[in-house]
């Protein structure tokens, strides 16, 4: 079928570039990166299928892309839905600018998820977190490794929030951290200004930060003249560098000297710090955040207090972070029976 002559014949690469530029002022950088990545697969398909303009697209082509992406990427249902939902948003944007036929976005189908499909259950539990922090307190006290793991676990911070902290954000008198959105100097928060908050610190956390800032932190600034709290000799620690700390210390063998997976440690492909993410037991920063939030909920923290501390809405808290079992929730509710 020939393209609609009334449509502006823009090529797919230019359309995606325009779409991302249009979204950039209104979404977080992480969201923009995710959309760029997902639509990159669509551009690969367009090139392979010789799709020269967005106006060439029909419902049949979009269905063919879905099948191609499913086979090409070996996607699970959640990933397939995420990618197709992003494509639908893009196609609808193209319609509004006259690049695509009206209502073409309705032809972009994605799977319907069952309750619970769109959640992740990987987390660092309290027992492992305590063992890691005890080990670091004994052998690497007030090191950057120690500070990073302490703040991830005890404050439930996102990676971007930890990366954004400056020395001045730490108030030892009030025992608090100020989490601040500073996009103009390259440290935006996921939820922008709505992600700003104060996080109270325990005495133990304050002591670690006092000793890090007072004795061990390199006296450096970043390229914007700010003093990063999580600093290396070269300035503000990159997010990838902070992420490596988490993979490194959540390998059980570095704390216990034993491998729960029956591997010979010296021969393991995850033995080097650069390959720590390959360990089946290592987890990401987000898994620590999920574990910390679940730990607080199990300790009977009010949901509102947990949400405010971690900057997460009640609905998202319930769907994506609360990993208590139904029986655990029941037993916690049982404590209130005497008040009925």
What does this structure look like?
With 340 residues, the protein is mainly alpha-helical. The protein has two domains: 12-107, Orthogonal Bundle (DNA polymerase, domain 1), CATH 1.10.150.130; 126-291, hpI Integrase, Chain A (Orthogonal Bundle). Helix content is 49%, strand content 4%. It has 14 helices and five strands. It has helices at residues 12-23, 29-48, 59-73, 77-96, 126-139, 144-155, 159-164, 203-216, 239-249, 252-256, 285-298, 303-310, 314-321, 326-334; strands at residues 170-171, 176-179, 197-200, 231-232, 235-236. Strands 1-2-3 form a three-stranded antiparallel β-sheet. Strand 4 (231-232) and strand 5 (235-236) form a beta hairpin. Helix 2 packs across helix 4. It is globular. The model has no long low-confidence stretch (mean pLDDT 88).
